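Course assignment 3, question 2. Fill in each field.
Student: A.L.
Task: Predict the tertiary structure for the chain below.
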Amino acid sequence: MKFQNPFVDCLCACAVTPEFIEKCADAGVAAINKCICTDESMYQAIKEICNYREFIEKHSDIAMLVRRPEDIEEAYRQHKVGIMMGFQGTLPLEYDVRLADIYADAGVTIIQLTYNYRNLVGSGNMENNLVGLSEFGYEVIERLNKAGVLVDLSHACEQTQLEAAADDLPRQLPRPAQHLPQRQRRGAGGRAGEQRPHRLLRLLRLYQAGHGGQHPG
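Answer field:
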């Protein structure tokens, strides 16, 4: 069956096998954002990149590496599944923003700022002290922008999300937030687990309204 509109799995955390890729293609999935790293070191991250690049090369009849949006369309036309390699967290950068360039060159297209807990970039949504971006966090975002890597706001606390989004809205850069928690662990001046409206969503809606509902390609 050929679907009129392809689907993109914005976060795939399951094992990627040839059988899984074939099922995705049959279901009309054009591409997946495969999380290949969370809290891993640089060495482990590079090994995972090698593993997935080897998988794609070995199974080039059903999979292809996604570096640009056009690659997703091409994968769908060829009845393949595009694989976007992504990190859920910035620990693989190891306090060296230059590694963003290396990862981008190797095919990493999406990097999440934090994964639930605080790191050198900002605070995760499971922290009690919900701080925003660090100075290093701003450096990371700037470097990722230059390298053409999407910054993912998922799993960050609201303050980190807002600062990351506001920092880049004037530059018209897209900011994916694939899954946002309905509850932060502690609201500002409130109880742990207090539910609050997402100011981030309002900010992103305002951004989209200014661009006809579309992120710039």
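Instructor remarks: The beta strands are 7-12, 29-37, 63-65, 81-88, 108-112, 150-152. The first strand starts at residue 7 and ends at 12.
Grade: pending
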